[in-house]
Structure formats: C-alpha cells, structure tokens
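Lecture notes, part 5. Sequence design as translation. It can be helpful to think of inverse folding as translation between two languages: the language of shapes and the language of residues. The source text, in structure tokens, appears below.
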C-alpha cells in the first residue's frame, strides 16, 4: 500500500511538471528610480488655494427631491430631529420633540455584565417593554449614553431603523433603535424601541498609539508621512502617478535577519517607499535609500518572502507598471533582479507554493483594465453591471522557476476562469485538507472566486461551496473563528447606511441589497460553508478595506481587525 501511494504521488508530480514544462523566464531587466537625496525634503508651504471651481452637474435629484424616494424625506427629518434631541439640555427642549403619549424602552438596560478579558466586560440585550416616558426621564437616558451618532439604515412607513453609536468615558455603546414619527410638521416621536444594544466597558484604553514613538524620529516621517493625499495632490503633477484613492500596502518581515520584525511601506507615485528596521529598543530606523528600495514608482502592495530558499527575506513590490523582484543580499541590502510587465495596475500580492515544487509562487490581483491616455480610473473603465461585473483587470499567477525567474502560468493552470472581476485581494489556504493550497479571491462589484487546487490545476467552485458573497469584496482572510479545526473565511465588504436604506425602498434583488450589507463571515461546514455574518454580529465594520483574523488577547479565539473609512461630504452620517 505504501509503495502504491508513493507511486501515485510520483505520477501526480510528473503530470503537474509536464503541464508546466518548457516555461521561460518572463522577467525583464529594469532600473527603478530612487529618491535622489535623503535630505531632499519638501519645504513647508502654506496650503495652496484652488483658483478655479467647476460646477458639477451629474443630473441627480437635488437634496430636497423625494417624489421617487419617500423614505429619504423621512430619513432626513429623523436624522435632524434625533441630532437636535440628543443635544437638548433641558426637559423643555426634549418636550418639543415628543408626541403626546410617547413611549420608550430603556436605552441601556442595567443587565449583568459578561466578562470578556482582563478588565473588559460587555452588557447586551434588548430594550425591554415600552412604557410612557416623560421628557425628564428621556433626557436622563440620552445624557447617560455620552456623545451619540445616528445613521438611518431602513425606513418602513413612518418608522426609521437607526444605527446608534455612543461614546463616554470607559464605555462604547452600539444599538439599533426603531423610532416612529407623526406625519406632522414638525414630525414628533411617538415611540422609541431599542431592538438590541451592546455596551463594551473598559477600565482603560485597549491600545496606545505608538507611531510617533517608534518611527516618528526619522527625518522623513513628519514631512512625508504626516501629510495627507490632499497635500500631495497639490504638489505632484499628473505624470507622477499619484493615486488619489491611496491603496498603498505594506509588508512585515525580518529584512536584516536579526530576529525582529521590520516594515516596508509602499507610497504614492513620486513619494519614496520606506523601509523601517526595528531596533533593539523597539524604535525603527528608516533605511530604504541605503538598502536600495526607496523607489518612487506608485506602489500598491509588497511582500517579504524567501524566493530563492537561501534563508533570508526577499522583497516583491507591485508597482503601477509591473511586479518588481529584489534579492536580499546577506541581510544588508536589496538588489533589483527584474520585473514582470504583464501585470499593470496591480492592487495586491500573495504567495504560496501552488505546485509543491519547493519554492514560492506569486499571485497578483489586477483591479481595473488600465488607464487610457486622457482618462484614468473609473472614467477609463467602469464596472458593468455594478453588482456582477466581469470587465476588470486580469489577475496573474507567476510560477517561480528558480534563480529569480518567473513566468505567467495563469491560463495553463486554470486560473483564467472568471478572472476579470475587479479583484482587490486574495488569500491561500488548504481549506479541503488535501495537501495543496487553494485560493480565494475577493472581488469588488460582484461575485468572489474560490479556486480549488487539484494537483496544480484549479477550478472555481465558489458557487458550489456557497462562498460567492456577491458584494463589494475588498479583502479576505482565513482563520478558525469557531475553533472547530476547519478554516473559515472573513471577507471585508462595504457597510453603507445610505446603501441599505435606499436598497430596501425599491424592489431590489437580494444580490444588490447585499452590496451594502458589510463584512461577511463564512464558516466551514460539511457540505461547504455557511453564512454566519449576521448571527456573529460582524457586518457593520464601516466602509471596510481590510479585515483580518488575529488573537489580540491571547485567549485562543480569533478576534477581528477592520481597517475602514472613506472620503465623504458633509453628511458624514450617511457613510
């Protein structure tokens, strides 16, 4: 039996090797432009003033239009009235917002606190029974919550579903309120019901911002890192390839072999990338120029990985024009070994030994199909249809041939299936436990892909496994969320209160409604995966860009970390 098993493995290896035989290196020699001088820092200047403003007419309804969207009129009224109510200082002011016979549940019932870890506890549940509530009592309840923010997530007749967040010293409160209003001018509250709430109580902060302590002493930190995109957009020309939407990644790894984690940070076009080497005292020294990697190309993603199996961390960087490969020279510097030009406008990188030949291969997500001479971004190419788009860029799998030689095997191994879906991120995991890494790809504007690896050949089984997650996929992370021994999927998606509200006012299909639902947690099951997003309470992570598993308190359970935020107008409560 053992001999037969070894024979089968040999056949499988030979068959995969035959498929990838006669492959040639597709990297080209190149030189990347570096920062010319380490002392060349931007001079302080007053904020530039835009001299010309153009009127922008998108043909959209004005802010007061409501004939096609009756719920939006009530949404605006509810937000305005609730904001004013929460800022009231006297019972007399509160009275003006309440209809006769107003009833309310408790906003934050005094339920027993459940311990989470250390000195952190949680109270949660429903608001309870509605009872007549006078202005004095409501004022006391409102003030007890702290500083409050409201977002309308659904409108049904004269009832608004409100997502509520409140902060006060030592506590964070989140809840869903159902508020009903009279059809009068001004509208008044008839009842308020807390559908659910959660309060996290802590004796002190969970984290401390150590950015300035760790890297703030470096000469380029203040003049380069602390300025926002608006600052640089006024100082860098179009030819500099500065992306106004950001999307610049980073990599963590031990670049100099001293056992401490170091940091490589990608930056926008015309701004040098940074390499921070961790010091023994916990601070980090910026050395990108000395190490030969202070590149000025617009860089989107980076990886520290050992590409040549010599025991040190090499560097891969996804620049706007190509994927660049740099060899680690004895933990003292990097040497550029070439670039792959067939992957312009990349968004992320991931690595795995997909063919089990002993070296790491590189997968690149390409978001859009590319810019045009006079058009960039969505102006050049827009996702169509927005909830199921297939007109994005082509993702690429580069097979490692050894000796810093790589070749595109995307089509050869079956990864060209559903391969133009506006991909943001990808992650490898042997989810089916057959010994080879499988690949999940998170796509913006539609369906995601799960490519099952069968001895070096891939098939997209996302629909069969129940993991297409038709939404605005931004990131993906594998982890065992329920400690059952099987890998689960966390997908970072967009949560938008405005999107949820509007999609429920019309006869939207379920696929379109899901676009604004937020993050997704898919737990492994016998027949595939099950959607545990709502039950686990992880959907509202804001406008999420990256979501990952991490055991933050070392209790053996995977916690979730979400990086979020987006540019918005003055109505910040809508996003």
């Amino acid at each position: 039996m053992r001999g037969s098993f070894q024979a089968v493995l040999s056949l499988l290896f030979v068959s995969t090797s035959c498929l990838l035989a006669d492959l040639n290196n597709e990297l080209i020699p190149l030189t990347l432009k570096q920062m010319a001088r380490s002392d060349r820092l931007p001079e302080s200047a007053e904020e530039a003033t835009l001299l010309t403003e153009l009127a922008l007419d998108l043909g959209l309804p004005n802010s007061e239009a409501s004939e096609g969207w009756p719920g939006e009129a009530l949404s605006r009224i509810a937000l305005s009235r609730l904001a004013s109510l929460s800022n009231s200082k006297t019972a007399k002011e509160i009275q003006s917002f309440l209809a006769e016979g107003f009833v309310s549940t408790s906003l934050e019932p005094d339920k027993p606190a459940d311990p989470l870890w250390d000195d952190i506890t949680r109270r949660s549940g429903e608001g309870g029974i509605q009872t007549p509530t006078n202005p004095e009592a409501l004022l006391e309840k409102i003030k007890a919550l702290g500083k409050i923010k409201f977002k309308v997530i659904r409108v049904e007749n004269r009832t608004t579903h409100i997502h509520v967040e409140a902060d006060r010293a030592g506590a964070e409160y989140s809840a869903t309120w159902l508020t009903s209003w009279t059809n009068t001018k001004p509208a008044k509250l008839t009842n308020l019901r807390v559908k659910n709430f959660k309060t996290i109580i802590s004796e002190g902060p969970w984290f401390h911002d150590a950015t300035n302590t760790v890297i703030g002493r470096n000469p380029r930190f203040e003049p380069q890192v602390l300025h926002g995109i608006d600052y640089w957009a006024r100082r860098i020309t179009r030819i500099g390839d500065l992306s106004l939407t950001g999307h610049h990644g980073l990599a963590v790894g031990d670049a100099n072999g001293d056992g401490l984690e170091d940091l490589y940070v990608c930056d926008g076009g015309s701004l040098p990338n940074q390499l921070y080497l961790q010091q023994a005292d916990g601070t980090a020294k910026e050395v990108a120029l000395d190490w030969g990697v202070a590149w000025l190309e617009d860089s989107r993603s980076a990886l520290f990985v050992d590409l040549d199996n010599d025991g040190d961390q090499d560097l891969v960087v996804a620049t706007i024009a190509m994927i660049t490969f740099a060899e680690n020279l004895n933990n003292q510097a990097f040497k550029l070994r070439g670039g792959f030009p067939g992957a312009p406008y990349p968004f992320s990188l991931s690595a795995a030994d997909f063919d089990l030949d002993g070296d790491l291969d590189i997968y690149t997500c390409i978001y859009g199909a590319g810019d045009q001479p006079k058009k960039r971004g969505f102006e050049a190419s827009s996702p169509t249809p927005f909830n199921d788009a297939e007109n994005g860029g082509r993702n690429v799998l580069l097979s490692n041939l050894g000796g810093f030689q790589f070749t595109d095997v995307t089509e050869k191994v079956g990864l060209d299936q559903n391969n133009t879906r506006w991909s943001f991120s990808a992650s490898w995991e042997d989810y089916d436990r057959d010994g080879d890494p499988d690949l999940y790809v998170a796509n913006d504007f539609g369906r995601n892909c799960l490519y099952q690896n069968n001895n070096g050949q891939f098939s997209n089984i996302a629909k069969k496994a129940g993991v297409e997650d038709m939404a605005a996929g931004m990131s993906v992370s594998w982890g065992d969320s329920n400690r059952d021994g099987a890998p689960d999927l966390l997908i970072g998606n967009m949560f938008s209160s405005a999107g949820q509200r509007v999609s429920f006012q019309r006869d939207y299909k379920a696929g379109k409604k899901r676009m604004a639902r937020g993050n997704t947690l898919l737990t492994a099951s016998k027949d595939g995966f099950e959607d545990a997003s709502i039950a686990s309470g992880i959907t509202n992570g804001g406008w999420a860009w990256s979501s990952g598993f991490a055991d933050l308190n070392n209790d053996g359970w995977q916690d979730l970390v979400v990086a979020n935020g987006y540019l918005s107008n003055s109505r910040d409560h809508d996003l």
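The translated text above is only one of many valid answers, since several sequences can fold into similar shapes. Residues 1-19, 44-67 have pLDDT under 50 and may be disordered.
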